[in-house]
Every structure is written in C-alpha cells, then in structure tokens.
Amino acid sequence: MARILPFRTEPAFTHGQPALTGILWCNLGTPDAPTAPAVRRYLREFLSDPRVVEIPRLAWLPLLHGIILPLRASRSAAKYTSIWTPQGSPLAVHTEAQARLLEQDLAARGHRVLVRHAMRYGAPSIASQLDALKAAGANRVLVLPAYPQYSGTTTASLFDAVSEWASRTRSLPEIRWVNRYHDDAGYIEALARSIERHWQAHGRADHLVMSFHGVPERTLTLGDPYHCECRKTGRLLAERLGLLPTDWTLTFQSRFGRAKWLEPYTEPTLQALARRGVGRVDVTCPGFTSDCLETLEEIGMEGREAFLKAGGRQYHAIACVNEDAEWIDALASLAEQHLQGWPSREPMDEPLQEASRERAVASGAAR
User: Fold this and answer.
1) pLDDT of residue 16 exceeding 90
2) pLDDT value at position 364?
3) Which reaction does it catalyse (predicted)?
4) The whole model's pTM is what?
C-alpha cells in the first residue's frame, strides 16, 4: 500500500527564476448554483466551522445535519435564485472582478504583484489559490480579507484556513495578514462617494440606515472587537457625510437562531422608522464590499417589504462599493501599506505581463 505523504508536492522550481509577491483577496463564499444541493454543500461547510457556530460539536452537528440543512437548503436556494445573474453568483462575480482590477491598479503604480481571489467556503478555495500563487512563483503572500471589520467569525476563520494550508506545505512563502481596515480613510471615502452618487441620482432620503451583518451578542462580551469596529465605521462615515445623529441609525442584520444577537436589528428598525412617519429611508451596508444575498435579497427585497408594509413610502437599497473606482484605488493603497518592505516594484518581465493580460481577457470574456 502506498504511503500517504503529509505534505503537498512542491511546484517545479528553476534556480534564478524571479521571486514574486502575491495577494490573496478573500471573501466569505457562495454556492456554486442556486439549487438546494449546491446550497446544502455550501451551508454544510459554512455552518460546520466552529468559528461561526460556537456550540459544542456533539450538540451542534446532529442538529445541523438532521434539521437545519434539510429545512434551510431549499429556502435559501429560492432566495439565491432571486438574485442570481447570467454570470453566476453576484458575490463571486464582484470578488473576481475586484481582484483583477486590484492587480491592474497596482501594476499602474509600478508594482509587480499577482492577485488571486478565493472564498473561505466554496470555490475557489483558499488552498487552491495559495497553491496557484506558489506555482506562479510567489514566495511572498499578502492575505487581504474582503471584511473591513475584524471578527473571529470571519477574519479569524479565514486565517485558520490559511494556517491549515500552511500545515501541509513543505516550502512556505512569507505570509502577511491584514486584520482590519474599518477606519481606513480610503475605505470611508469610497463608501461616502457611493452614497453621494446615489443621492445625486435619486435625491436624499429622510433617514439613512447603515446595516452590518450581525453576530451573537456573546461574542462581544467574550472580547470580539467586531461590534466596536462597526460602530466606528458608522461614526466616521456619518461624519464624512455631514449627518446629524438624528439623520442615521446603525443596525445589524441576518440574525440566525434564538440567541440574542447584536442590536438593534435591521428589520424591526425599518418598521419602527416607518411607523414613526419617516417617508423615505435609504439603506447602505458598509461591512459588505460586494453585493450578495444579504444585500440584494435580505436588504433589497425583504427590507423593502418590511418598510413599505409598516407605512413607509420610499425605500432605496444603496449598492455596495463593488468595482467602484474609488474603492479599488483605496484597496490598492491599503495593499501598498502592507506590502512595504517587500520588493514588488521590479519591472514585470514579458511572460508575466502576458500572463496578466491573458487573465484579464479571460476574466472579461467569462463575464
């Protein structure tokens, strides 16, 4: 019987080949298709992560596989169907485009950097994209999360996946992590410009709601900084927009289960605003850098229905920053800060330039 090797086989190496710097742009993930089997696979991986659900495995896993997945997969698949595009999952399309544009922006600044996108759950996986960067010659990798606010449920889980890959890799690249950028000036400016463009096109709302993804309240008491970082993002964005305290509200969405989560909750807040006589509300989701199920369906559809049924007259869901030029520029500046000290400004040789162009062409053709 052949012995199973504990480490992956290393890619071919030629002495003298140029060392490269890679960036791994990482998002949460998405099902491969808006079908119950695909959603079930995705949710199984996502909800099996102990960083996401901090319940003892012996109690949680039978509940997950026996009740939650069979009931939730079909309902979630219907929601994904409502936001799916001809190109696929919006989150996947935006995340791939952001990686391509980030590489182009950095190249325009003179950086010789390869950028690949990956998903914490689903495809392309963290491990497969790290393998791809190594195969391309990258011996330095910056791990850049699509999550501006740090949370153990997202950022730390991403780093777990990178560490797991590292535990099975013989020749490790240098690895750097970006933990957070919730108060980065470029990020705040990109958010503000996105909202201002919406107001220029549609007029200004009576009230702005900033909705962030929720997490269980106990994570705050256990030391997770997510709640505080969301609130700082909200404060800085409100200051940049010149809003008074009565002009905006910060909320948390996507509650799951019966436990108490961070409050105030988004949907009850929208209903309360409508009953209070607020005629038009705009909702922005600063914690999401790509539009996805939570922004397009939960905020764009369910939130609208809740507000209008409660007596509101106009409801606008503001798009995420997605591929906005200001956001890509801010992302490139953020990457530059964390690339300092790594040689990345050597002229890119012709084979690498050609490979970068081919990836850009292929990416555009796929969409």
Assistant:
1) no
2) 46
3) heme b + 2 H(+) = protoporphyrin IX + Fe(2+); Fe-coproporphyrin III + 2 H(+) = coproporphyrin III + Fe(2+)
4) 0.90
